[in-house]
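Justification of computing resources. Each target in the renewal requires a structure prediction run like the one illustrated here; the chain below, 594 residues long, is used simply to show the kind of job we budget for.
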Amino acid sequence: MEQEMAEFLPLNRGSKMEDSERQTFSLIPIKSRKKGGLITMPFIIANEALENVASYGLLPNMTFYLMREYRMNITTTQNLLFFWSAATNFLPIVGAVVADSYLGRFLTIGLGSIFSFLGTAVLWLTAMIPKARPPPCNQSGQACKSTTTSQYMLLVFSFLLMSIGAGGIRPCSLAFGANQFDKGDHNPNKHTVLESFFAWYYTSSIVSVLIALTGIVYLQDRLGWKIGFGVPAILMFLSALFFFLASPFYIKPKVHSNVFASFIQVLVVACKNRKLCYPNQNSDYHHKNGSGPQVPTEKLKFLNKACIIKSPEDVKLNGGAANPWKLCTVEQVQELKALIRVMPLWSTGIMISINLSQSSFPLLQAQSMNRHLTKGFQIPAGSFGMFMMIALTIWVFLYDRVMLPLASKIKGRPVRLIPIVRMGIGIFVSCISMVVSGIVEHVRRRRAINEGLLNNSHGLVEMSALWLVIPNSLNGIAEAFSAIGSTEFYYSELPKSMSSIASALLGLGMAVASLLASVILSAVDKYTKGEGTESWVSSNINKGHYEYYYWLLALLTAFNLLYFVACCWQYGPSADVDITKRMMELSDDDDHLP
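Resulting structure tokens:
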């Protein structure tokens, strides 16, 4: 640690100095400061953790804020949250491209932190300024004023700023942290230190989300929206401040070409060369300099035309393409083929993300149930999501540290479920979770009706909200199997040069899932209501049939499981790789960091 920090000598104010010297900083470095290393780790982790607390702390109770303050119905509210989630999960892909090809990771994270702070600040202003939202309904019987266009746009603008901020921070934070231990650091314990960084990074992410789901939600429930939105804004300001404070210590890698552009080049060149005939000799295919002659695979053969050498002038003396938009390498073609090959299995994970994105309905369920743990304390309705995180963490620990070692000891050989099997288990558990959610809601609604609360959606049902822990825990286990299994599957099946794609596919799936969830919800609301008939997803939780909605999602998940099996059969045998080992390899090759 001491070797990574500069040694400074304080100036003696009594000594004689020239005027130009007096204008310098009060500390003069004796020797050049070594950049990167452990000294940067707290700042990078703090930036990510504070962003998590601020952003995840706003989501749970946002349903109440929109329904109460903006008087939106449940369908409009949930659809707006779906669109916000879609933007938040899609923009990190854009952020990764911008960071790798244009701005660099440091500047992208810094700008993302500023945008996130501005977004939380604008949201806080909607709570602070009365005219920024519709006025309260009066008691004179007059109709309540609806949200104006300007009020609605200000709200959406705050969501957009926060999504842009997440797009800058989330795809770059882990990779930027790994950059601080790059090959310029000749520490023989580099991989041990890097593994420690990854462990602290993921631990802080889980802890920060738990703090958001408990502390921030509690502040909103007890102290109102002004304090509940103000604290996340302050945290985002501190997140940006801490990150920029350590700027002199960071290693800031230069930008490089992005693999996304490579895919576009392959498609463009393949289209240009569509009339070419396939060559008979392997040497007629262009390959990466130094890799030796290679032949592209027969699958998706039309893409092979992107790497056919039409004339010797297409290749420079150093072996590179004279124009990458006229000639690609075999490696580029194979990378695109690998991506296309995993896309069907990638699509099977969308349904799980749809199930996990149903945030508003569990919130209304918890609000209508008995949430008391003691006479003086009750769990905030928005905090029940923490049970999913707790279940996920406990299950990962038991699976990795207890179940697998025990199974290996019994079998007498290493036992490990390959990623594709874990993905299937995750889909199955998610289906069971939706079935259980429907059963719990069916019992809750029946009790509400028996207690005379059919027309009173704010009435408290004599049923413990702890029943919601069961579906939340199942969601956590499903997420543990699916998300971790999917990530390892992408890392094992895609080439090392496509690790940035592997890390982006999960977020892209969640973005697509949010959009599809909005389509499903709108369709259910439209086709299940009629004259004198309440929609399944009515704003009145006791008149609606949320259990039917949950069971519909369970049915779609069951069909998705069959689709997954078909995709596995079509895909064939899959590889397996230790993701930790792969991340260590990537840290030695900055161009391939996710």
